[in-house]
Amino acid sequence: MSTSTPGTERPTTTKPTTRRRTTGSGTRAARTGARTTRTATGTRRSTARTTSSTQPKTRTEQAQVLAERAVLVPVGAGLLASDNLVSTVKGLASKYSTRSTLERELRRYERRGATARNRFERQVRRARTRFERELRQRRSLVERTMRQNRRRLNREITSVRRDFEKQSGAVTARVERLVTNAQGMIGS
Fold it and tell me: What are phi and psi of 56, to 5 degrees?
């Protein structure tokens, strides 16, 4: 699609041209190092030169390339999508071409669905069992803690009651002594 204007014809070959710089000031080691670098990256450089030599030079050519790209990209994408759709439809048509293959595929899907359902049910049962086990453990822990607290409270109450009875007995004995002493003082 690229057209060239008269007088600005470009070469149609994409073969890279190799040019060497010749400078008199370079040392032999530098030239050798440069040579090994060129050798190691020769393929990379040649592809870079190839792409740069086919790049449009003028603004008109650049605009033309951009316009071509703007048209060719959607066309190419549409063709790719069409190819994919055709191959998918052909694959489905070949897969389900007869009744027996269709039934076989349906049985396969049914088995896969049953497997997924069974796996889900197992997961639900495991989760329920785990939840019930944790609930039982928490309940037994709470009940055990309540029994321990109840025993401790009963011991404390019994201890306080004994202390109170001892103290009340001592107070009663002291009051009786005071009353006896007071009666003895009054009577004498």
Answer: -65, 145
Alpha helices, H only, the chain: 28-40, 42-53, 59-95, 99-187
Q: Kindly report the pTM of this predicted structure.
A: 0.39
Determine the Cα–Cα distance for residues 63 and 80; give it in Å rounded to an integer.
26
Question: What end-to-end distance do the CA atoms of the chain give, in Å?
Answer: 147
**Quick count: other Cβ atoms within 10 Å of Cβ 65?**
15
Tokens of 45: 């450089």
**Measured between alpha carbons, how far is 31 from 93 in angstroms, rounded to an integer?**
65
pLDDT of amino acid 19: 54
Tokens 């008199």, residue located: 24
Report phi then psi at 141, rounded to 5: -65, -45
- What is the band of 154 on the pLDDT scale with cuts at 50, 70, 90? very high
Place of tokens 């190419």: 76
pLDDT value for 91? 84
Residue 63 neighbours by CB distance under 10 Å: 11
Task: Please give the residue that has the higher pLDDT: either 15 or 138.
Answer: 138
Q: Is the pLDDT of residue 6 over 70?
A: no
d(CA 179, CA 185): 10
